[in-house]
Amino acid sequence: MYMKEKRKNLSKEEIVKQQKQIEETKRLNQFTKEVFYPTLLKNQKNVEDAQLLCSVLEMAIQQAFINVQNTTTISQLDLGTIDEKYKEFKEVLSIFNDQTVKDTIYHLSSMKTAINTAVINEMRDRQLESLKTLDRLSKEE
């Protein structure tokens, strides 16, 4: 039998902490929705490239800066490991210039998770015959 847990009375400090966490989540989600996702859409046409871009930028940022990510902004980093020919990387990265390293990594990681979740959900309902790979295989036979 399921036992209902007693409600824990929160202290004022715990309530304030929870409210701050909610506001922080709202702030991060607003940036993702209004700035990051539209910029990603403008620069990437397919899911794989978007995921790759997020992964490459996330790894480059983490590689370049690990210890002081809570106070340093992206514009303060030297991300020389990003090849000059990847204009779209630089454009997407530029929207994070005033974001902390920690927040930027959060946004990149969250976007990858959101894309993966969407792909999984879409594939769950998709008919096997609708896959382009199978169309190509049947034409080759």
What does this structure look like?
With about 140 residues, the chain is mostly helical. It has a domain at about 30-125. Helices cover about 65% and strands about 0% of the residues. The chain has helices at about 10-45, 45-65, 85-95, 100-125, 130-140. The longest helix has about 30 residues, at about 10-45. It is flat.
Radius of gyration: 20 Å
The end-to-end distance, rounded to whole angstroms, is: 59 Å
Q: How many β strands by DSSP? A: 0
Largest sheet: none
What structural category characterises the helix and strand content? Answer: mainly alpha
Strand content: under 5%
**Structural shape:** flat
Query: Unreliable runs, pLDDT <50, ≥5 residues?
Result: none
| Element pattern in H and E | HHHHH
Kindly report the average pLDDT value: 81
Question: Share of helix among residues?
Answer: 55-70%
Instruction: State the helix count.
Output: 5
Any key phrases for this structure?
141 residues, mainly alpha, 5 helices, flat
Secondary structure layout plus pairing:
Blueprint: H1 12-43, H2 47-64, H3 87-94, H4 101-125, H5 132-140
Helix pairs in contact: 1-3, 1-4, 2-4
Describe, in short, the structure shown.
This protein has a domain at 31-124. It starts with 11 loop residues before the first helix and ends with a helix. The chain has helices at 12-43, 47-64, 87-94, 101-125, 132-140.
